[in-house]
Amino acid sequence: MRGIRQLAKHLDISIGTVSRALNGKPDVNDETRRRVLAAAEELGYVANQSGRSLRQGTTNVIGLMIESSKETLENGDNFFLGLTGGLQSVFARHKLDLVMLPCPSEEDSQEYLKRMVARRVVDAMIISATQRVDKRIDFLAKAKIPFVALGRSASGGNYTWIDLDFEGVAACAVERLISKGHRRIAIAAPSNDINLGYIFVDAYRQALERHGIEYDPALVIRVKSSEQGGYQAGDDLLGLEIKPTAIILIYELMAIGLYRRLVEAGIVPGRDLAVIGFREEPRARFLQPTLTCFRMSLRDLGVKLAETLLATMPAYAEFYPKGARNTIWPLELAPGESDAFTLNS
Amino acid sequence: MRGIRQLAKHLDISIGTVSRALNGKPDVNDETRRRVLAAAEELGYVANQSGRSLRQGTTNVIGLMIESSKETLENGDNFFLGLTGGLQSVFARHKLDLVMLPCPSEEDSQEYLKRMVARRVVDAMIISATQRVDKRIDFLAKAKIPFVALGRSASGGNYTWIDLDFEGVAACAVERLISKGHRRIAIAAPSNDINLGYIFVDAYRQALERHGIEYDPALVIRVKSSEQGGYQAGDDLLGLEIKPTAIILIYELMAIGLYRRLVEAGIVPGRDLAVIGFREEPRARFLQPTLTCFRMSLRDLGVKLAETLLATMPAYAEFYPKGARNTIWPLELAPGESDAFTLNS
DNA sequence: CTGAAAGCGCTTACAG
DNA sequence: CTGAAAGCGCTTACAG
């Protein structure tokens, strides 16, 4: 089927009426609508998106930008795929489609975003992995394209974000460890400029100081957010002059590498060293002893992200009267055996 | 910047000339082109994609369809993200963009594909996880939209595919095990209708029969393609009346679950049971003893997929004179310790 | 309730 | 080398 013109000719009515019938506009005779729908189905007609977009000024597509860094690849990060279910369940209500836009690792992420946005292939964007200073935010704000950031940033003034409760996780982990007698608590933080690193380390520091423990920069171990990074963290930890008795990890897969390094050194997690991981992850479930970590639903987060985004879009805001409020997404402690001992000092 | 009209007015030349300058057409005065490019850069003008697409009849976008099944999610399958780098490196040569289209799990995958294709949001499609009978193939062929399938299928007549060398892997694994004295070799195969299951089990059977070993259906253990499936396979294996001495896995993450179940039962892989995994995977790298498996480059596979797809597209075929040939993608044995013992019978 | 017509933002023959 | 104009496939005021 070529286009609406062919379909209209086949039905011997005008293209305007065909369009109105297909789009569920009210002023169409029931019988006419029935005929149009039947013919469209039979001939497999679906409106060309470029024609619609050009006329309507909207694409009905929402983009989810993905940074396919080597780290993400290596570690099989399914974070984004986990989000899609929740996102789509919301977008489907409004006949919006989700596309994932993987930024090539060779291309600058801001240039890529610019291209996608300027070409108007999407009506709105979801960005993630926000940096401390993130030019994408300024660009999107200036381009006046609706967007929501998964992650806070020091950039930009007034934009909408959702972020994990790193403060809550850090405070909970530190307090849990202190209550078990630990005083020398290390933290494995990301070595790049991602904003969550700053937030997490700050919250860790504050929690320590609330309990009268001095913050020691030597205990902040900077590594890649990956399994390998966890291995490296174990290595660095073993090299410290005064060994910590506990470590908090900032990225889910670090635990796997860390355990490996510890085992190599004859150190048993949960007995010789307390370990608290970050987000609960199917791949870390097999660890022995089981890892104390934090639980959340990626699907629910996806739903929240989608609803927040739509609340920023004039065309959909009415459906989300609560508005586009920034959200700190809570995680729930999932206690395991990796920190289940009390330090007898 | 509103559109080409504004840009043309700002430069005081016609929109036709602006368009030609921007698109690198030959018949443009060098100085004019320079001015246009400078103004576009300064004002942040990028051509609206809907306008271009409508006029040109192409979107310059290639879709990679992703089935976000619960299994994929649970297991953090990074197969697709691993492919994107290679795909994009080829598409970039032709200024084509890649978008990932995640099929909502609630929606029928053929309906989803139909919608995306009929609306003409992409010029061509890459599909994967082909089923034994896969209606998507018939649909795409009938719709005459260029596509390539990652995976063979019994469906459709003449279509282009690339598939992993399951035959080679199965034969290599079986022969390796037989050479080490094994005669009772189990195989963990997928429980769904995915085509690779048929191919793999067939090749396994043929390899056995070449060595005079009778095929025993009881040794084909049907489980989900996931870590949990691996655990289940271990469970099923332990329940067999006559225990196999070796097992071949058909999906990369099964090894993790299998190891777990074996450890629980006090069975040591590589000593009590020989295990050969499928594709080498970062997440299975920590397994002890190390897993014998098969190695391949996802990036290179992405390059091949992209080149094969472009060879089927009239507009790009000239750049890929080898044509769109079906390809069996080889994997290389990566020996580990999990099958490194000889059976003394 | 339906039709005729305008126009969304581009690219591209066609003149000159 | 440049401009004026047509037209890609739709949707949507506007008449009737």
Can you walk me through this structure?
The structure is a homodimer of 345-residue chains. With 345 residues, chain A is an alpha/beta fold. Chain A folds into 3 domains: 44 residues, lambda repressor-like DNA-binding domains (434 Repressor (Amino-terminal Domain)); 135 residues, Response regulator (Rossmann fold); 131 residues, 3-Layer(aba) Sandwich (Rossmann fold). Helices cover 42% and strands 17% of the residues of chain A. Chain A is built from 13 helices and 12 strands. A 6-stranded parallel beta sheet of chain A has the order 2-1-3-4-5-11, sandwiched between helices. In chain A, helix 8 links the parallel strand 3 and strand 4. The longest helix of chain A is centred in the middle third of the chain and has 16 residues. Chain A is elongated. Chain A starts with a helix and ends in an 11-residue tail after the last strand.
Annotate the secondary structure layout.
The structure is a homodimer of 345-residue chains.
Chain A: H1 4-11, H2 15-22, H3 30-43, H4 49-56, E1 61-67, H5 70-75, H6 79-91, E2 97-103, H7 109-118, E3 124-128, H8 135-143, E4 147-150, E5 161-164, H9 166-179, E6 185-190, H10 195-210, E7 220-223, H11 227-239, E8 246-249, H12 254-264, E9 274-279, E10 292-295, H13 298-311, E11 327-329, E12 332-334
Parallel strand pairs in A: 1-2, 1-3, 3-4, 4-5, 5-11, 6-7, 6-8, 8-9, 9-10
Antiparallel strand pairs in A: 10-12
Helix pairs in contact in A: 1-2, 1-3, 6-13, 7-8, 9-10, 11-12
The structure holds a DNA duplex (16 and 16 nucleotides).
